[in-house]
Design goal:
It is a single chain. The protein is an alpha/beta fold. The protein has two domains: about 170 residues, Aspartate Aminotransferase, domain 1 (Alpha-Beta Complex), CATH 3.90.1150; about 250 residues, Aspartate Aminotransferase, domain 2. It is about 40% helix and about 15% strand. The protein is built from 15 helices and 14 strands. The strands form three sheets. The protein has a seven-stranded mixed beta sheet with strand order 4-10-9-8-7-5-6, sandwiched between helices. Strand 2 and strand 3 form a beta hairpin. The longest helix has 23 residues. The protein binds 4'-deoxy-4'-aminopyridoxal-5'-phosphate.
């Protein structure tokens, strides 16, 4: 028995499913989750001392690679000054200034402790600001696990086939309308009927929780247009795309400016952080300036700000995102070439440093149906072959993958050599 197997068996006694977040359990690919004891650069090391090239990156935050020395130093320096004060710090202002300077739509920002809190708070704000209750989201998009958002959701909810969770009162769910992703005609049609009741449209500008589905040209632009027509707040959930697809997120990459945006992952540099913000006149509705309540004991936590600020500064250097994007493109092209050579129907998607892998004969992946039509069972076999050979992709066919700046030629070769054998074995 491996140490991961032993640890997983013990974990299940007191932790539901042995994990503190469902997709970690490997349910959709089968087998035992790796228990990790160390991570550095492009690699994670499990409890059995096996090293893996990591394409999960803690589900997105580790854009610099693991254990970047400057990030660790910043956290160590802060450690000498205390863990949490529940009072303002200079670092929080620096963080707000930095985020607002990087992201086009941001006049003001508030820090929270997770992506879920960020989206939940942004939606409350949109509802408070508009005085409307109903929200629109898209099928297969995941915005965290708050009640209004677990309706036809992606990520673990999709992986486990319960996209609409028990425990969400019907009275909440009825205020969430779900439309097909990348279908602007459906949005126009819906808003022409119920536009005056809609507080906000929340969208992942690149859908990263049903694998990875970039927006078709015109989709995000169309959302901006219809939101303006109907007085609806447009929220880009950039928890995954923020600071990754470009320094200014998907909104800078695609040139569409939302009213509010939500962040997580990279903004905390691996610490528990989220953020939401946007136009000043909307953000001023938040307490203590306005009546929409929102708060957090650990919000703006100094250790988390130290890690996040250092990460944001390091990724601001010229050429950072081009390098990240180029690694990702070369890796995907390499996979495609090897799949083609092995005669395996395979297609990839990419937005900057995030990507999707599909066992599918489709030319492109544009919709939720395209994703669902891909072969998840074949993905699971590919996943295990790669894992066996020391390459760790996301343990689900419904999650995006992430490269880091620490991934270089060595990791590329390792990945592609492993993939050649994996495709041949399918
Ligand atoms: N929004 C998006 C787009 C996400 O990908 C996630 C998590 N993967 C969340 C929100 C929720 O963030 P968290 O897990 O930090 O609560």
């Amino acid at each position: 028995m491996s140490r991961s197997e032993t640890l997983f068996a013990s974990a299940q006694k007191h932790i539901p499913g042995g994990v503190n977040s469902p997709v970690r359990a490997f349910r959709s690919v089968g087998g035992t989750p790796l228990f990790i004891k160390h991570a550095e650069g492009a690699y994670i090391v499990d409890e059995d001392d096996k090293r893996y090239v990591d394409y999960v990156g803690s589900w997105g935050p580790m854009i610099l690679g693991h254990s970047h020395p400057d990030v660790l130093d910043a956290v160590r320096r802060q450690l000498d000054h205390g863990l949490s004060y529940g009072a303002p710090t200079a670092m929080e202002t620096e963080m707000a200034e930095l985020v607002c300077s990087m992201v086009p739509s941001m006049d003001m920002v508030r820090m929270v402790s997770s992506g879920t809190e960020a989206t939940m708070s942004a939606i409350r704000l949109a509802r408070g600001y508009t005085g409307r209750d109903t929200i629109i989201k898209f099928e297969g998009c995941y915005h965290g696990h708050s009640d209004s958002l677990l309706v036809k959701a992606g990520s673990g909810a999709l992986t486990f086939g319960v996209p609409s969770s028990p425990g969400v009162p019907a009275a909440f769910a009825q205020h969430t309308l779900t439309l097909p992703y990348n279908d602007i005609a459906a949005v126009r049609e819906s808003l022409s009927r119920v536009g005056k009741d809609i507080a906000c449209i929340i969208v992942e500008p690149v859908a990263g929780n049903m694998n990875c589905v970039p927006p078709v040209p015109g989709f995000l632009e169309g959302l901006r247009e219809v939101c303006d027509e109907h007085g609806v707040v447009l929220i880009f959930d950039e928890v995954m795309t923020g600071f990754r697809v470009s320094l200014g997120g998907a909104q800078a990459y695609y040139g569409v400016t939302p009213d509010l945006s939500t962040f997580g992952k990279i903004v905390g540099g691996g610490m528990p952080v989220g953020a939401f913000g946007g136009k000043q006149h909307i953000m001023e509705c938040i307490s203590p300036l306005g009546p929409v309540y929102q708060a957090g004991t650990l919000s703006g936590n100094p250790l988390a700000m130290a890690a996040g600020l250092t990460t944001l500064k390091l990724i601001s250097r010229p050429g950072f995102h081009d390098e990240l994007t180029s690694y990702t493109s070369r890796m995907l092209q390499g996979l495609q070439d090897r799949a083609d050579a092995a005669g395996v129907p395979f297609v990839t998607t990419q937005a900057g440093g995030m990507f999707g892998l599909y066992f599918s004969g489709a030319d492109n992946i544009l919709t939720f149906e395209d994703v669902m039509a891909s072969d998840a069972e074949r993905f699971a076999r590919f996943f295990h072959s790669m894992l066996e050979q020391g390459v760790y992709f996301a343990p689900s066919a419904f999650e995006a993958g992430f490269a880091s700046i620490a991934h270089g030629d060595t990791e590329l070769q390792l990945t592609l050599d492993a993939a050649e054998r994996a495709f041949a074995s399918l």
